[in-house]
Amino acid sequence: MIRSLLIWAAVIAAIAVPLIAAAHSPLLAWRDPVYIVAGFAGVLSMGLLLLQPLLAGRDLPGLLPLASRRWHRRVGFTLIFALVVHVGGLWITSPPDVVDALLLVSPTPFSAWGVVALWAAFAAACLGIFRQRLALRYRIWRLGHTGLAAITIVGSVVHAMLIEGTMEIMTKTALCVLVLLASARTLARLRVWDIRRRS
Amino acid sequence: MTNSHLSRRSAMALGGAALVTGGSGLLMPARAAGLAPTRSMRGGSNNYRPGAPIVERIGGGGFWMTGTVRRAGDGAPLPGQRIQIWAHTTEGHERDPQSHGATLTDANGEFRLEMPQIVPAFGQPHGHLAYDSGEFETVFLRPIMASSKDQTLAAHFVLQPA
Asked: Do residue B46 and residue A93 have CB atoms under 8 angstroms apart?
């Protein structure tokens, strides 16, 4: 009981503290509301990227496997929505910068990482939505979904770490490390690279 | 096989050497004579507003954009050249008209324009400068500040006749 409370408290803090820290960024004073919302959608996305591997690995205490899967799907939809708000808000703020980023010709190195992560997230979500219709063997499907998710995670972490934005550096680094650790743990525990048929 | 044939390895080495030399501007005959023209930077023209007015200072000031304008080849300073400057500052977004202003180079081809403090936007503290008057080839620059606490930023143009 104590242990599960501690785990939940740690997960909530890992997501909430970076948001609170970003809310104190001095940069906010010089940004329009649309730009601020776009930035926070990005910060929230990184927090959701922490939840996804924990839900997929059924690591969160008190959630039955079926509930874990259902929440993985809900968080996935929320993540896609947050990413659309992130890119859409940036587009409204400065269209040419976002066009450059989407065409992978941006002068800022972190843009390409973010855009690759974005498309990988969309593709991973599509695999999730069309899982039944694709009729792939389960472990093949899982390798595809987790492979795309891994690209999203690595791309997002590099993207976030290279940016000088509203995220406070210590909380940003801590959240990124947690996202990487949680993802590595789930991928390793599920042995996603093992695509042999279950005997 | 005779010695005149290049082995694949030596051909690659030669090609690599040519790339390095070309990349550093040493193989370009037109530029060998002197100063090479500045090339536009990626994203330099983003949120450009052609024809921004020449101003004493942009907004309340407190930050200095400085630089030089010279002619390609002989490096002669170019006086009276119009340079437009814009950035995301404490007083507005890049696209806002009040964030834009232009200035002219002095007799030494130098310019300096006071503007509000540049703050990081789209992930980097950076400014934008344009030469776009027609006499020389258009150049857009997008210099990045070493630190977002800097209160000055420099950018240099070497222009080539249009």
From this structure: no
